[in-house]
UniProtKB/TrEMBL annotation, chain A:
Binding-site list for siroheme: 706
Keyword flag Nucleotidyltransferase: no
Superkingdom of the source species: Bacteria
Keyword Transport assigned: no
Protein name (Swiss-Prot/TrEMBL): Assimilatory nitrite reductase (NAD(P)H) large subunit
BFD-like [2Fe-2S]-binding domain span: 442-490, 505-554
Family statement: Belongs to the nitrite and sulfite reductase 4Fe-4S domain family.
Gene3D superfamilies the UniProt entry points to: 3.30.390.30, BFD-like [2Fe-2S]-binding domain, FAD/NAD(P)-binding domain, Sulfite Reductase Hemoprotein, domain 1, Sulfite Reductase Hemoprotein,Domain 2
Keywords for this protein: 2Fe-2S, 4Fe-4S, FAD, Flavoprotein, Heme, Iron, Iron-sulfur, Metal-binding, Nitrate assimilation, Oxidoreductase
TrEMBL record, chain B:
GO molecular function: 2 iron, 2 sulfur cluster binding; metal ion binding; nitrite reductase [NAD(P)H] activity
GO biological process: nitrate assimilation
Taxonomic lineage from the root: Bacteria, Pseudomonadati, Pseudomonadota, Alphaproteobacteria, Hyphomicrobiales
Species in which this protein is naturally found: Roseiarcus fermentans
Protein's name in the database: Assimilatory nitrite reductase (NAD(P)H) small subunit
Domain Rieske: 6-102
Length: 839, 117
């Protein structure tokens, strides 16, 4: 950095007056040009800058971290106010230049400042394109270009409402993720069939879409925006309300961000009579059709091309600086550009040209289990295109080969695996990892490099993957680098490495339940075939063990989105009745909290008579079981029960079974609270949700505990001061008393704690693992910490439960009475009408 | 050997993938299965273990798991897989123009099959 004093002295002593350099626009490229110029010819120019934005030069590409809250504006400033003072630069902030007078050699700002120039740089950047659809001018429709846009978005995001981002390119996706991080419900609408289609090929575009959706952003590809709908103008000034797509879909929107492309800002140059095509036309020396005027940055069109990434713009900046410093030979030769998406945890890298063509070959590596996809495009022994998804560690090395146009005939076999494997070395993965330098990034999500992992293993004496995860966070997020991390451990420990011994879900996979669950979420897998494909299932369509488990995990992960797969359910859950030893079924209606009425009992009696049901029994769960119903009769039986207000009791479900109650304070002389009422409330709140295994509750009105709450999955014992909540009891195959969970003072608090507990169980429990087994595995204290002690966590769990209940509380009997899955209940063909009497 | 008699029992589309439907016959029920790759099979709807209705089981690969006690039977041969021993009768089946044709002639003169359905 220069010293002010020295500069002032030099300026005073300089023989010729400095030339006047005026710059229109204060973006990233002129900032870089000035740095270079002040290095090469510190004395040559007196610089004046006009900037339409009312601020100093900042790193525009880091706006996304500002939007997501990872950074503040101060952290992305490139040149602070002091820099301008130091360099004697006059910066007009918030002054848009409205005219260039080439005869008078002046520029005029919107506020009337007229500035003479000897040399002029136009660096006006680009203007975001606004789709001219109806409603595009409504309040709440923004573009994404500068800090003001970010500030406006953050303001709307406070409402935590809905945002729609139009455009699934780099900018649109970063905006979407940023808004999501700010708590908005975000949808991305993209015209093309895959995201970022200009930088990615179809397979990597699809992987990206999964990753984006896994972050809670809905992606609509192949979707065209027809109209932006506003609020009723009668109710105050109209602002955006929704986005209407061509197919009629209406996406609610409190905010619409258009990120559909940019157009070079060339109007000022055009008005001044300079040659303008798509951008301001410049020669290799970056001069426009007027040799005293340069165009620089996104507004310039060099060699017939406009550029939208900073790397080539910085190359341009170097040429402009050299030319201004007197090097007339400096010429702009654009080289290939590389793209990375700046979304934490999503690793993609693309460079060059990877379109298919007859004159080119490609090498593709796909490791679905690790979420890795790589494609190299080759032409005549040169690398011309690279797409890396998931594991981008070798991006820099490959990009270097591409830019240099290196002859890769010797590397062909191994270059896919990076420099460590190249040069004819054997393809032992450990060898490739051994060859990685210490600063090679292993875990992209958490930015952990190889050296850190090795050091931590040594320092802490770690022996297992879990240990490394806990201490370094490597592979602890999306897990796609788990294989690499394991290799680093193996390399460091040799035989001392304790490979995790997980019990696989079933014979179709080597993965355990927890890994499968984690990967379903991390990879945004949304169907059973997608899971099997992505996680390398060894059977074509799973087995009777894994399919029901996957069906549950998908339901729990994607409420409202995942379509339940009936064929992957055990018969009882498929037809919502319990199969009996003779192939008939039992029917158990809900009897909320064990309370019934004359009308319900009469309806049940009528059904029993009408369908000649052989057995009626009171169950151990305080309700009534109708046994021996033929399958074909089920819908008709349910219709009659529904008519009396009775719905399915889910006596077959991995879900809420019964909430047993005692009579409590309504009648009992010892009752302290309304145990019956609370039981009914709990049952009404919890019914319908699918859980890893069945869930049974009981509420007793006093510690005498007539409802046997202390051997249930969850129990409540009412006391004078409120409600003691207990959990993790068992009274079936195992017998185990419950453990204390917490104490609540109100019914509402009791319900919130229990719903949070059930949700945590839904998220962590392995399929068929009852609550007491889950609690034993993860520790009752850890559960208590989350659902009782940490009010915020509890609330979040409760909220997620409420969301999923929104999609779960539909009576399956009523659905089937209305015709759903009708094929289940009738034979496909009846060649035996004569056999009717026998059935 | 009796002569082959193809009976049209319905469209393949009426059987869910990885699912089953039942054909009632005077001798009892026959289960039609459809695999993920649209192959179809016909078996007597009666598990060799304790008579469970196979049509109510979970179909996976070319197997079905009985709903009562989880025996796994091959749809191709009707044989119980793994350690279990037993066999459910199979019937010739072909799919033509999307229709399922089954040869049930083996049933003729047989006593009534399982009573499940
Ligand atoms: C009907 C009922 C017996 C009765 O006549 O009272 C019953 C019947 C069955 N129980 Fe039960 N259990 C019934 C109350 C119980 C209870 C008592 C309770 O809920 O208070 C227990 C002990 C508490 C518990 O769940 O821990 C109980 C522990 C079991 C178990 C052992 C579970 C365990 O994890 O230890 C099984 C086996 C299983 O689920 O794998 C089981 C399984 C079954 C199944 C579903 C067996 C099966 O898979 O086919 C029975 C089906 C009956 C049907 O078709 O309706 N049933 N079962 C009771 C129905 C209650 C209801 O209204 O829904
Ligand atoms: C959110 C976001 C993320 C990005 N991410 C990446 C990335 O990851 N990698 C990458 O390589 N590139 C990225 N880019 C693109 C990169 O930021 C631009 O290519 C680069 O900033 C362009 O620099 P520039 O100097 O040409 O113009 P700009 O930086 O746009 O600066 C132009 C300036 O000129 C001002 N101006 C315009 N007209 C006038 C006028 N008449 N008078 C006075 N002032 C005027 C404007 O207000 C603006 O401040 C991203 C861009 C955005 C918006
Ligand atoms: S003992 Fe049972 S019935 Fe009696 S008050 Fe307590 S809870 Fe109620
Ligand atoms: S009846 Fe089929 S397994 Fe027992």
């Amino acid at each position: 950095m220069h010293h002010v004093q020295k500069e002032a002295l030099e300026a005073a002593a300089s023989p010729a007056p400095r030339q006047r350099l005026v710059i229109v626009g204060n973006g990233m490229s002129p900032g870089r040009a000035l740095e270079k110029l002040f290095e090469a010819a510190p004395e040559a120019y007196k610089v004046t800058i006009f900037n339409a934005e009312p601020r100093v030069n900042y790193d525009r590409i880091m706006l996304s971290p500002v939007l997501s809250g990872e950074k503040t504006f101060d952290q992305i400033v490139i040149h602070g106010d002091g820099w301008y003072v130091d360099h004697g630069v006059t910066l007009y902030k918030g002054h848009r230049v409205v005219a260039i007078d080439r005869d008078a050699r002046t520029v005029t700002s919107e506020h009337g400042v007229v500035e003479p120039y000897d040399k002029l740089i136009i660096a006006t950047g680009s203007t975001p394109i606004v789709l001219p659809v109806p409603g595009c001018k409504l309040a709440g429709v923004l573009t994404y270009r500068d800090l003001d846009d970010v500030t406006a978005m953050l303001l709307v995001a406070r409402s935590r409402g809905h945002a729609v981002v139009i455009g699934g390119g780099l900018l649109g996706l970063e905006a979407a993720i940023g808004l999501r991080e700010q708590g908005m419900e975000v949808s991305v609408v993209h015209l093309m069939p895959t995201l970022m289609e200009r930088q990615l090929d179809t397979p990597s575009g699809l992987l990206l879409a999964q990753a984006i959706e896994a972050r809670g952003v809905r992606v609509h590809t192949g979707a065209n925006t027809r109209e932006i709908l506003g609020t009723d103008p009668g109710a105050g000034p109209s602002r955006v309300r929704a986005v209407l797509l061509d197919d009629g879909t209406e996406l609610p929107a409190d905010l619409v961000v258009m990120a559909v492309g940019i157009r070079p800002s060339a109007a000022l140059a055009r008005d001044a009579g300079l040659a303008v095509n798509r951008g301001i036309v410049v020669g290799p020396d970056m001069r426009t059709s007027d040799p005293d005027i340069f165009a620089l940055g996104e507004c310039a069109e060099a060699r017939g091309q406009c550029f939208g990434l900073v790397a080539p713009l910085y190359e341009m900046a170097a040429i402009v600086a050299a030319q201004l410093a007197g090097d007339a030979t400096a010429a702009f030769n654009p080289s290939a550009t590389a793209t990375k998406l700046k979304v934490t945890g999503i690793n993609l890298f693309s460079a060059g040209d990877f379109s298919e063509g007859e004159d080119r070959q490609e090498i593709v590596l796909r490791d679905a289990a690790r979420g890795v996809y790589r494609r190299l495009a080759l032409k005549e022994d040169r690398l011309i295109g690279v797409v890396l998804y998931g594991d981008v560690a070798h991006g820099a090395w490959l990009f270097d080969l591409l830019k240099r146009g290196a002859d890769i005939s010797d590397l062909r076999e191994t270059m896919m695996f990076g420099p460590g494997a190249a040069g004819g070395a054997p393809l032992d993965p450990t060898a490739a990892v051994a060859a990685l330098p210490d600063d090679a990034e292993i875990c992209g999500c958490n930015g952990v490099c190889k050296g850190k992992i090795v050091d931590t293993i040594r320092a802490k004496g770690l022996r297992s993957l879990d240990g490394v995860r806990a201490h370094t966070k490597a592979s602890a997020s999306c897990g796609s680098c788990t294989g690499l991390v394991e290799q680093v451990i193996k390399l460091t420990l040799g035989d001392a490495y304790e490979a995790a011994s997980v019990q696989p879900v079933c014979g179709c996979t080597a993965l355990g339940h927890d890994d499968v669950r984690r990967l379903i979420v991390a990879k945004a897998l949304k169907s059973i075939p997608a899971v099997m494909q992505a996680l390398d299932w060894t059977s074509s369509c799973g087995c009777a063990k894994c399919r029901p488990a996957l069906n549950y995990y998908l339901l729990a992960a994607w409420p409202g989105e995942y379509q339940d797969d009936g064929q992957s359910r055990f018969i009882n859950e498929r037809v919502h009745a319990n199969i009996q030893k003779d192939g008939t079924y039992s029917v158990v209606p809900r009897m909320w909290g064990g309370v019934t009425s004359a009308a319900e009992l009469r309806a049940i009696a009528d059904v029993v008579d009408k369908f000649a049901i052989p057995t009626v029994k009171v169950t151990g769960g305080q309700r009534i079981d109708l046994l021996g119903v033929r399958k074909a009769q089920l819908p008709a039986v349910w219709a009659d029960l529904n008519a009396a207000g009775l719905i399915s009791g889910a006596a077959y479900a991995k879900g809420l079974r019964t909430v047993k109650t005692c009579v409590g304070s309504d009648w009992c002389r010892f009752g302290t609270q309304d145990s019956t009422g609370l039981g009914v409330k709990l049952e009404k709140f919890l019914w319908g949700s699918w859980t890893p295994a069945k869930v049974k509750l009981a509420v007793s009105g006093c510690p005498r505990n007539c409802a046997e709450a202390t051997c249930k999955d969850v129990g409540v014992i009412c006391v004078d001061s409120g409600y003691d909540i207990v959990f993790a009891g068992a009274a079936g195959l195992d017998i185990k008393g419950t453990e204390a969970l917490g104490h609540a003072e109100t019914e509402a608090e009791t319900i919130e704690i229990i719903a949070a507990l059930v949700q945590l169980y839904r998220e962590q429990g392995r399929y068929l693992e009852r609550i007491y087994k889950w609690a034993k595995r993860v520790g009752a204290a850890a559960i208590k910490a989350q659902v009782v002690d940490d009010a915020e966590k509890r609330r979040a769990l409760y909220d997620r439960f409420v969301v999923s209940q929104h999609f779960a509380q539909t009576d399956p009997w009523a659905e089937r009475v209305a015709g759903k899955d009708a094929h289940e209940f009738v034979p496909i063909a009846d060649l035996a009408l004569a056999a009717e009497g026998r059935r | 050997m009796t002569e082959t008699i193809w009976t049209d029992v319905g469209a393949l589309d009426q059987v869910p993938r990885l699912g089953a439907r039942v054909v009632r016959t005077p001798q009892g029920c026959v289960a039609l299965f459809r695999t993920v790759d649209d192959r179809a099979f016909a078996l007597e709807d009666r598990c060799p273990h304790k008579g469970g209705p196979l049509s109510q089981g979970i179909v996976h690969g070319a197997n079905v798991t009985c709903p009562l006690h989880n025996w796994v039977l091959s749809l191709e041969t009707g044989e119980a897989q793994g350690a279990d021993a037993g066999r459910a009768a199979t019937f010739p089946l072909k799919v033509e123009a999307g229709r399922i044709l089954v040869d049930l002639s083996a049933l003729a003169g047989q006593p009534v099959l399982g009573k499940a359905s």
